[in-house]
Amino acid sequence: MQSPQATLKNAWPYQQDQMNLPVADLETALPFYETILGFRLVSRSETPHQSAVLERDGIQIDLAENGGDPQQDGCFFEVDDVETMLTELMATGFDNITPDFSQQQHGNVTWKVFFVVAPDGLCYCYGQRQ
């Protein structure tokens, strides 16, 4: 029996563009996104640099060997159930997760959140509206 999965509802990049997230080596990065984060490969491109579009629940991100600093970028993912999302990620055996939930206020919305740092250095925050 497969355990329940959380659904991504939105993605907001930390910098300008969730469709241009910097990675040093696309081939090394892809398995993490497919195996751990549950994305599937939609397309690849060689120009203007190596890149790949990934999708989960209709939400797309693009990893690109664009020379950017991954430690300065990432995305905030809104999910329907942040606790289910954490359980799903922990079940993969990946351990670079801050498993303690915190509350963050953005405008008039309070979010219950946790953080994941990918092996490529990109940081992701998963959150649910409270």
TrEMBL record:
It comes from Spirosoma pollinicola. This is Glyoxalase. Residues 15-129 form the VOC domain. Transmembrane segments: none annotated. Pfam families: Glyoxalase. InterPro entries: Glyas_Bleomycin-R_OHBP_Dase (IPR029068), Glyas_Fos-R_dOase_dom (IPR004360), VOC_core (IPR037523).
